[in-house]
Amino acid sequence: MFGYLTADRSSLEEKDFAEYRSVYCGICSELRKNGLLSGTLSLSYDLVFLWMILTSMYEPQTERHTGSCPLHPFSGREMSDNIFTGYVSDIGTILAYYKAIDDWRDDRDPVKLTASRILSRPFRNASARLPRQASVIKESLDRISMMEESQSGDIDGLCNLFGTLLGETFVYYQDDYWAKHLREFGSAVGRYLYLLDAVLDLEEDKKHNRYNPLMQSGMGSAEWQKNAVDLFIGDISEIYTFLPIISYSSVIESIIYSGMTKEFRKHFESRPVGEKDVP
Fold this sequence. Notes:
Elements: H1 14-33, H2 45-58, E1 63-67, E2 77-81, H3 83-107, H4 110-129, H5 131-149, H6 155-169, H7 179-207, H8 222-240, H9 249-259, H10 262-269
Antiparallel strand pairs: 1-2
């Protein structure tokens, strides 16, 4: 994922932040068990968001315990763990593998090539455990890649494809009543993430003559970007209110209503008043 699904620390009480961190540490521990010596190769707070949504929806038995951490060897870390910990770790591994491959193709950075090789076996194992999600992820990324290579300006089509990809990761129980609603929610989040990434990258992409789907008339304006982001955030909020979220609601709502938009607000506020197009 992109790393934008983070909570706003200032909006959280200490107990909520402690829960947030314990989920992160639990996922990191699971990644290391699966052969990733550095959990950060495929770990982001986006996975914590997915874990909290699924955990709040289905309320599985969750254990909280103290575990060892190579980054904090002299003090244990509180870790939360349930049936979704392994699931989101697998999703993170699959997405991280494809991102490493994509970065290698774009930049020919040997570090990214090394990362893809480290991830290759965990990726195959995760894909075998999650064939439905892995198939949708691959198909969606292939179609996105084709559109990007053709320099497509169809931002709606690209956002929808990433929405399809992410929406499938929010569906753990395929035949469950809530599967349709979780898929719609994940799709709305995915559409927003693709758009946000394009908005935040636009200035640098123009400067370095790199492809960006927003390099079309009108789409580079601050007004267009703000309206589009507001529309997508509205979709997320509308679907979220329908979900029976109780546990972790403080953290989840901090992410949706503040953390998700933090980078865009910083970007938007840094632009000169009256600016119409990205230079």
